[in-house]
Specification:
Helix 11 crosses helix 12 and helix 15 crosses helix 16. The strands form 3 sheets. A 6-stranded mixed sheet has the order 1-2-12-9-10-11, with helices on both faces. Strands 7-6-5-8 form a 4-stranded parallel sheet, with helices on both faces. Helices cover 39% and strands 12% of the residues. 52% of the residues are buried. By secondary structure, it is of the alpha/beta class. The N terminus is likely disordered. The protein is globular and about 65 Å long. The protein has 17 helices and 12 strands.
């Protein structure tokens, strides 16, 4: 079975301490060491589809690097379990997460639907040569607004900026008159910000205030206008997704921008990219897969991959959902009711899902998740402490420095694998690096403040799911 060997992993880990450019270099080098004889053609097909529009344009380098991430066997963990654990290294996408796939797909869908203008480099001469359009400002029809006469909304306490100020700031950076707006826990926003910058659109990201500060700093460095809001239930009008929706509407209705609310939770372009690309990549690299295990943020990945794998294996592969504390999806899969006891609380002072994990867990059923819900066989609840223990064990045994959701996925993968026959193949996803989790998940003081044990303070702390296997 083709997979990347241990040598490639060592090189990748060295790269995590380097710059973003170095990570991209290793990303390419790692692939060269894997078996590429049957490498999926889907990226080239995707790039060809980009050129089918009447307004033809080429892709930037970032877009060409999205997808075809390696599938890596964790040899040391697999040897312990006598079952193979494979990880899809989505952290090796150019933006550091698999959200690059969904972001690219959703922005393209918005442009094709004319909700966004075509990219700034979407100008082509009749002879077929592409040129960069000579636009360095927003369209003239927006220049008539008198900024000094604006009656601004009250300022947000986290940023000191009003919604109008944020809209206008994003508009000044837009070369197409388009603005991408999204409510996100961070990773999708980072991918959207990079793609928006390269395509000439402005970008506004609304973040809940329970995310690591690193994500906010990255977004600001990428030129996104960031609005940080208190955590709230989705039924609350001040939920970050609901605020993003209103900002996009305001940018369109009041200021005349081509602003689009990306709506990653309900946007089926999210599901579609994983059904068309991520799922096929996994199946091609591991045709004898017995189980696919992962958590759900928007639901797009587990739904798209799950549906594809079920179809290819005639329903034989197990699709297992991993869910953090407080999320309602575990009960939805196991009992048919989307509810968690934490949702009975009138005030959420810690986390909207009461977990250390970022970017996963839901208090509702999204359209993306609903598409693939029938393909999910069962669910596993993973506690924060188990994820923290797995993170530290994985670093010392496999040399992988990964984020919270990835560790939840791995705990779920182990618990699934031990209930399968020996020699079974289980695949899960490494979502992102630990670099985006330094102030929370990988911060000793923060973990202790949450009542968790810091594995580094112990002589030898083994993840609970591995106690029976580690001597």
């Amino acid at each position: 079975m083709p997979h990347v060997g241990a040598g490639s992993i060592a090189v990748m880990i060295l790269a995590t301490a380097g710059s973003t450019g170095f990570i991209v270099w290793v990303y390419l080098s790692s692939r060269s060491r894997s078996d590429t004889s049957d490498k999926p053609k889907r990226r080239s097909q995707r790039l060809e589809r980009s050129n089918e529009k009447s307004c033809t344009f080429s892709c930037c380098c970032y877009e060409k690097l999205i997808g075809s991430t390696p599938l890596v066997r964790l040899d040391n963990l697999s040897k312990l379990l006598k079952r193979s654990i494979y990880v899809k290294m989505e952290s090796m996408n150019p933006g550091g997460t698999g959200k690059d796939r969904a972001a690219w797909s959703m922005i393209r869908a918005a442009e094709e639907a004319q909700q966004l203008p075509y990219p700034i480099y979407a100008s082509q001469n009749q002879n077929g040569t592409t040129k960069i359009a000579d636009v360095d400002h927003a369209p003239e029809y927006l220049s008539g607004h008198n900024d000094g006469a604006i009656k601004l909304e009250s300022s947000n306490e986290n940023t000191g900026k009003s919604y109008d100020e944020i809209i206008l700031a994003a508009g000044k950076l837009s070369k197409t008159g388009g603005i991408v707006v999204e409510g996100t826990s961070g990773s999708t926003g980072i991918s959207l910000a990079i793609l928006s910058a390269s395509r000439g659109h402005g970008c506004i990201v609304v973040l809940p205030d329970d995310q690591a500060i690193e994500k906010r700093l990255i977004l600001q460095s990428l030129g996104a206008q960031v609005q940080v809001v208190p955590t709230a239930s989705i039924s609350n009008p001040h939920h970050y997704v609901n605020i993003a929706r209103r900002i996009a509407e305001r940018a369109r209705m009041r200021w005349g921008y081509h602003a689009v609310f990306i709506d990653q939770f309900e946007n089926t372009a999210n599901f579609q990219i994983h059904y068309e690309e991520t799922g096929p990549e996994i199946y091609q690299a591991c045709p004898h897969i017995d189980a696919f295990v992962m958590s759900s943020g928007t639901g797009g990945t587990i739904a798209g991959v799950g549906k594809f794998l079920k179809e290819q294996t005639n329903g034989k592969v197990q699709i297992v959902l991993v869910d953090p504390p407080g999320s309602s999806l575990y009960n939805r899969i196991e009992h048919g009711v989307a509810y968690a006891t934490q949702q009975a609380e009138l005030g959420l002072r810690r986390h909207r899902y009461d977990t250390l994990a970022e970017g996963i867990g839901l208090d509702r059923i999204t359209h993306n998740f609903a598409i693939g819900e029938s393909f999910v066989d069962n669910a596993i609840r993973v506690e924060d402490q188990h994820a923290v223990d797995m993170a530290h064990w994985l670093l010392t045994v496999e040399g992988l420095f990964v984020g919270s959701s990835s560790c939840m996925n791995l705990v779920g993968a182990v618990e699934t694998a031990v209930n399968l026959p020996q020699e079974s193949n289980v695949v899960t996803v490494i979502c992102d690096s630990g670099q985006r989790h330094l102030t929370r998940f990988w911060n000793r003081d923060f973990c202790l403040s949450r009542g968790l044990i810091w594995p580094g303070d112990c002589d030898r702390r083994i993840p609970g799911c591995l106690i029976d296997y580690v001597k």
